[in-house]
Design goal:
heterodimer; A: alpha/beta; B: alpha+beta; four-stranded mixed β-sheet; four-stranded antiparallel β-sheet; 10 helices
Chain lengths: 260, 384
């Protein structure tokens, strides 16, 4: 069995957010971590590996420094790593990203693709299902539990107030919730091995059946009008009124600001 | 000369730091307060390979280098000195001599489970009447047929009662030189827990590293197989000294970590603590003290890392290890004392980590060779 886990290097929000002049994130200037949902997806894949002996490949698209997150994944136990990196792929929105990742996946033999539900930088939850759409794969999103049963996967799909138990035949794509599990730590020996291994690097030319109109900033339908860091709110207004008057005052303010 | 870490060592540090912050730090106060050995933490460390970092993979280890091991002890000790010394004594004092002097059979039998963390290791040299003067040891081993018979006791043994495998130094013969002076000849042995005649004395109640299991080991007609001898007969003293050279690098890393941990907490505290209407970090007295501590810690770090690199590349590293241990231990004591001072009254209260760290720091100036012993080793080489 072969599993590909799509992971993303995301800014560590603890380190502060920085933007490029065009409004996209300045990823090179920020501290970076493996996206938490993706890490849970990787852990799920590694547990399947322990049970079934599956081969786990991690795939990411990003700057050359995204190599770090692939090494981390290998230090946790992934067998192979692929970095898709090219200047022409930069500034991609979810459409261009999923098109690109699908272009990479067309080169790979797999039974199961796992992605995180969403990345903490974009929070769209679109890339996983879009990849599935490009590759004509069934998709099960929001996985809270994954079980392999022969040629099938059984997934507990989490909703706000209930869950669904879904069974589908592989190949398929699953998007993982960070609640799925507690990812393991790397091991010291795993880290040393990860740096002895090769990371496969693919550029634009290595991607299969991919239209130039669907890549990079130019191929992204999403146009960012403006982006800014969180603006600190002022101290606000303090009033001393009794309960009934307070309610009336707050209601009038909310009406004034068209909140209600 | 490059003073920066490469990527794999950086990543290893981030692993140890994350593990220490998440798994060890929340238990550090309780471990100190209850004097309970942190068995669950040790099990977790075993799971992730922390109990055999510098050991080759074919012997169950991680195949990393002494520097990686040192960074592990350092990061653990930043949050809990007890956890740091458990790893240090196990790795440096038990696994290392078996790896260095053991037969292939001994390595397979003992190092593999030790490096995997399935078993815990300890080392016994010190006796009630023999500390710095190791020649004062009384524990004897006499060959009787196919067995050695051990008699005597060892004290202040780290990982004492929780250990499974012990390296024990004992007298195996006494010879006379030309002038008729008697000389004790020592040998090293591997002794397993549960061997009849091997028992534990009292648990020591300590000032610091209180979760560390420190016990007296008692041998009463304890019979161990002939092949439990580690290295050549009569070479126990050089084996012990060489083992302690490695151990000192581990303790130096523990001391370094304690100093760094105390400084980190003190920097946070001085930014929050207000006196005379402003944070005490705004006072030049505080700033200068923090600067002095940071510079001294960096100097200690370079000595400790150099000693780790020397262990990786040189056969003999006694001087590097002695300098690292001396300077890092005295740095830990000086820095933690200063940190408690900057915390004022709160620094004297158990609720604050620096109080524990100051108590933990003291032992680093004493065990595995006191600061005075390190000075003897260093000056001995200078005046040779």
């Amino acid at each position: 069995m072969k599993i590909v886990v799509c992971i993303k290097q995301v800014p560590d929000t603890k380190g502060g957010v920085k933007f490029n002049p065009d409004g996209t994130l300045d990823r090179a200037a920020m501290l970076a971590i493996m996206n938490p949902d993706d890490k849970a997806g990787l852990e799920a894949a590694l547990r399947i590996k322990e049970e079934t002996g599956a081969e786990v490949t991690v795939l990411t698209m990003g700057l050359p420094k995204a190599d770090d997150v692939l090494r981390e994944a290998m230090a946790m136990g992934a067998d192979k790593a692929i970095l898709v990196t090219d200047r022409v792929l930069g500034g991609a929105d979810t459409w261009a990203t999923s098109s690109t990742i699908a272009g990479a996946l067309r080169n790979i033999d797999y039974d199961l693709v796992i992605t995180g539900r969403q990345a903490i930088d974009g929070d769209t939850a679109q890339v996983g299902p879009q990849i599935a759409e490009h590759l004509a794969l069934p998709v099960i999103s929001y996985a809270a539990d994954i079980k392999i049963e022969g040629e099938n996967v059984i997934v507990k799909r989490q909703y706000e107030d209930r869950y669904h138990m879904l069974k589908t035949k592989m190949p398929c794509l699953i998007t993982a919730l960070s609640e799925l599990n507690t990812p393991r730590y790397m091991s010291p020996g795993g880290i040393f091995d990860a740096y002895d291994k090769e990371v496969t690097v693919w550029g634009r030319a290595d991607l299969k059946d991919l239209d130039d109109a669907n890549i990079g900033l130019a191929g992204s339908p999403t146009k960012i009008a403006k982006a800014s860091d969180k603006v600190r709110k002022g101290a606000g207004e303090k009033v001393n009124l009794d309960a009934a008057e307070s309610v009336n005052y707050i209601m009038s303010k909310l009406t004034e600001k068209h909140v209600i | 000369m490059d003073f920066s870490l490469d990527k794999k060592h950086e990543m290893a540090r981030s692993l140890f730091k994350e593990f220490a912050e998440t798994e060890v730090k929340p238990l550090a106060q309780e471990t100190d307060e209850t004097e309970a050995f942190p068995a669950e933490t040790v099990a977790k460390m075993a799971k992730y390979g922390f109990m055999g970092i510098p050991v080759p993979k074919e012997y169950g280890g991680q195949g990393c280098d002494p520097l990686t091991y040192v960074m592990c002890v350092e990061e653990l000790s930043k949050v809990c000195g007890t956890t740091g010394v458990i790893v240090s004594a196990h790795t440096s004092l038990c696994i290392d001599p078996i790896m260095t002097y053991g037969t292939e059979e001994q390595k397979k039998k003992y190092v593999i489970p030790l490096a995997k963390g399935e078993k815990l290791g300890a080392f016994g040299l010190t006796e009630p009447g023999a500390g710095t003067d190791a020649q004062g040891c009384q524990t004897k081993a006499v060959l009787d047929g196919d067995e050695w018979v051990l008699n005597g006791s060892k004290c202040f043994i780290t990982n004492g009662k929780v250990g499974d495998v012990y390296i024990i130094i004992a007298i195996t013969s006494v010879t006379e030189d030309k002038r008729g002076r008697k000389k004790k000849n020592f040998s090293a042995f591997i002794v397993e827990k549960g061997t009849p005649g091997f028992s534990f004395g009292t648990k020591e109640k300590k000032m610091g590293i209180r979760g560390s299991s420190t016990y007296e080991l008692i041998f009463e007609d304890c019979r161990i197989p002939k092949d439990a001898l580690l290295g050549p007969e009569g070479k126990g003293f050089p084996i012990a000294m060489h083992t302690l050279d490695g151990g000192r690098i581990g303790i130096a890393a523990q001391a370094l970590g304690i100093a760094e941990g105390a400084l980190e907490r003190t920097i946070e505290y001085t930014k929050e603590r207000k006196q005379f209407g402003r944070a005490i970090a705004a006072q030049q007295n505080t700033q200068f003290k923090l600067a002095d501590m940071a510079a001294r810690i960096d100097a200690a770090k370079f000595l400790v890392y150099r000693a780790a690199m020397a262990k990786a590349t040189q056969k003999v590293y006694s001087i590097e290890a002695a300098k690292a241990k001396l300077f890092a231990a005295e740095t830990a004591m000086a820095v933690t004392t200063e940190c408690v001072q900057l915390f004022g009254g709160y620094g004297y209260i158990r609720e604050y980590d620096v109080e524990r760290m100051m108590r933990d720091a003291k032992i680093t100036e004493i065990y595995e060779g006191t600061s005075e012993v390190q000075r003897m080793v260093i000056s001995g080489a200078l005046l040779r």
